[in-house]
Amino acid sequence: MMKKTVDTEGLLAAIVEGIQNKKGHGVVALDMRTLHNAVCSYYIICNADSGIQVEAIGQSIEEVVLEKCGEKVLRTDGYQNAYWVVLDYFDIMVHVFRTEARDFYRLDQLWADAKTEIYKDLD
């Protein structure tokens, strides 16, 4: 049985759409493909102002990715406190932070040498 190949760019677009559907802020994609020993192709990072919105963004991502790409998330963590939710799509790791957590952990800055794509916030 052959493993089905995932369209990384399509997956990336679906994840961003899921974030934007729930008005996530500060959406960035860190392209990890050129970095030595990177564990995935992309890190997607965004933030929200409340735990309810963090949870809603995570659920929206899961729904849009399943609908558009037919992919289920491999693992999740953080829904129980909705402070920092992580969604693992193997090739793409998604981090949805409460705004204060993103400001504190500054995950965006850990890979300063990664190519960064910044998405415009939708109003």
From TrEMBL:
Its main location: cytoplasm. It is found in: Cytoplasm. GO terms for molecular function: ribosomal large subunit binding. InterPro entries: Iojap/RsfS/C7orf30 (IPR004394), NT_sf (IPR043519). GO terms for cellular component: cytoplasm. Keywords: Cytoplasm, Repressor, Translation regulation. Signal peptide: none annotated. Gene3D superfamilies: Beta Polymerase, domain 2. The keyword Calcium does not apply. The keyword Cytoplasm applies. Pfam families: RsfS. Belongs to the Iojap/RsfS family. Functions as a ribosomal silencing factor. Interacts with ribosomal protein uL14 (rplN), blocking formation of intersubunit bridge B8. Prevents association of the 30S and 50S ribosomal subunits and the formation of functional ribosomes, thus repressing translation. PANTHER family: IOJAP SUPERFAMILY ORTHOLOG, MITOCHONDRIAL ASSEMBLY OF RIBOSOMAL LARGE SUBUNIT PROTEIN 1. Interacts with ribosomal protein uL14 (rplN). This is Ribosomal silencing factor RsfS. It comes from Williamwhitmania taraxaci. The lineage of its organism: Bacteria, Pseudomonadati, Bacteroidota, Bacteroidia, Bacteroidales. The gene is rsfS.
